[in-house]
Amino acid sequence: MAITFLLELGLYLVLTRLPPQFIETFSGAAWTLGIIAPSAGLLHVLALTIGSSTSAEEYELGTADYWMTRPLKRSSYFLGKTVGGLVLLFLIVFTYSILSLSVSWYVFGPQSKVEIFPIALAASIASAAPFYAIGLAFGELLRRSMMSTIVAGAVFFASVLVETYANFVALIAGDLTLREVVRFLPSWASTGLTPTILTDALGLSLNTPGAPFTGLGAENLWLAAASIFIYSTVFFLIAWLRFRHSDVTRRAL
Amino acid sequence: MSKNPVVVVDSFTKVYGDGTRIGPITLHVGEGEVYGLVGPNGSGKTTTLRAILGLLKPSGGKVSVYGLNPYSHPEKVNQKIGYSPEIPNYPPFFTAEKLLRVTCNMKKIIGKDADNEVRRILDLTGLVNHADRKIGNFSKGMVQRLSIGQALVGDPPLLILDEPMLGVDPVGRAHIRDVLLQLRKQGKTIIFSSHELYEVQRLSDRVAMVYMGKTVFEDMVMNILNNSPETKVVAELVSEPDGKLAKALEEISGVLEVAFEANKVVISVDSSLDPREKIAEKIVNLGYGLREFRISQPSLEEVFINRVKESVSG
Ligand SMILES: Nc1ncnc2c1ncn2[C@@H]1O[C@H](COP(=O)(O)OP(=O)(O)O)[C@@H](O)[C@H]1O
Ligand SMILES: [Mg+2]
To answer: Per its UniProt entry, which superkingdom is the organism in (chain B) (predicted)?
Structure first.
């Protein structure tokens, strides 16, 4: 969490050091950079960490017994925890987004297009859902928050790595089918959604899909939404089924 | 069983992921009974209690609590249960009062009712003076008492206490024992586990003994102590016993073994044949003179050890 905020401040520190003529082109929209940058990676690591501890920590601490012997429906408990984790995630996203906005205002002067701030927030949260759900599922499967953070993190980095590599190869070989394949990766929509929506709303069409921070191309938004929905739903379901149909115990087996 | 059954565990088995096998375990707990689940560590007591709470899914057999399957309806079953786990684990930064308040909240006891309930439980468990202290600073005995206390929130009719005396010093134990006896008087059904037979013998109406994952036997404590082969008749005589008396006593059907200890005759009997009257008669008729005549009950521990030996060899 602290890392997120350090990254934000670092980002703006670097921006102020760039040549002024370069900065002028986007200084009115500098606030969006502070929202786009985390969505490339940190946001998802944060989401999967919160997901993992949301589901696994109660077993680790031994407090699961307490909650599961209350007159509480299993579904209410599960929903409560899941929503609780999401609220925490939202608060973090909200805080660093506000931070971006205020720092940008302070450093670069009045910011434009501030009316899309809520959309930026919504996009960030939605795009964080798949890895939140993946963290939740691994936490429930492994019942160790550390281990499940590592495994879910490995899934994320592997996905990003494969995506980057495939895009790179596609660029060199001019092979468009690779680009299509990449869309099945969970990181494709997660990392691409926020920059796509924001650059589109700002009217900045950078038109180099696959390049960092530029998004997936506005034409792919629906596909991205579908990918996010499917990945989130599938892993939420895995987490729920595992939760409902296994013993309440610290051991994973 | 004459009383209304509250908990029925019928040939329950559990196979854990690593292949550990528990069961078959069978228990019948009637309303208002204090039921002791005894057996050495690792024999399956906690497993059985957790199945009753709906915390784990039986691999075989049937578990029912107030007629409901606890695994399918944990929220309904837990409405009627107060549970204190073997290793109480509460947020260390909570105070005792805070834990009780949260528990009240979970049971939908709010406002003034919650105030009264918290006070009642602090009183009952003797934690009034520690209400504002953090659980992290509690002694083992205090945590156990608090754990029993949170189980009592909302006055549930069924209490499940897993090793309530574990790691508690003698003074703390006496206190917990008092609390349990008070609850028993109130007519609560209490199932508790312990590997210490002495505690179980003092507290329970009925016991089940589990060993290596199986129920060795289940009975009323009174029946066990009165009717086991370990039950002996002890007769103190006026004149010293001799071989002639031994021979005469051994002829009585139901007498298994006769031994002498100075002026005493210690006789193992088959209690189903109850030869007590004939023994006394013979001693008197042969002119040895009878000073004292009593039944010596074994401890639950002796009975348990012998049953385990039997079940292993047979
Ligand atoms: N979640 C689990 N996974 C695998 N084995 C377990 C699990 N819980 C308990 N066991 C094993 O089951 C056996 C019985 O344990 P338990 O029910 O805790 O016994 P008791 O409470 O009588 O000491 C032990 O051998 C224990 O190691
Ligand atoms: Mg145990």
So the answer is: Archaea
In chain A, the residue whose alpha carbon lies closest to the alpha carbon of B76 is A71
| Closest ligand by atom to B19 CA | 1
Contacts of A78 in chain B (CB under 8 A): none
Distances (CA, A) of A41 to A153, A156, A190, B1, B134: 10, 9, 9, 64, 40
Task: Give yes or no: residues B47 and B179 share one domain.
Answer: yes
Q: Which domain holds residue A72?
A: 2-20+30-244
Q: Could you tell me the residue range of the domain that residue B250 belongs to?
A: 229-297
A249 domain-assigned: no
Model ipTM?
0.80
**Chain B positions with Cβ closer than 8 Å to A:** 16-18, 50, 53-57, 74-76, 78-79, 81, 83, 85, 87, 89-91, 103, 106-107
Q: Among A209, A167, A158, which residue's Cα sits nearest to residue A187?
A: A158
**Strand partners of residue B83:** B160
Same domain, B66 and B174: yes
pLDDT tens-digit profile of B243-274?
Answer: 999 999 999 988 988 999 889 999 988 877 88
Model confidence over B277-307: pLDDT tens digits? 999 999 999 999 999 999 888 888 888 888 8
Q: How far apart are CA B122 and CA A49, in angstroms?
A: 39
Q: Which residues of B touch A72 (CB under 8 A)?
A: 75, 78, 106
Contact B78 A245 (CB under 8 A): no
- A74-99 burial code (b ≥16 CB/10 A, e <16): beebbeebbeebbeebeebbeebbeb
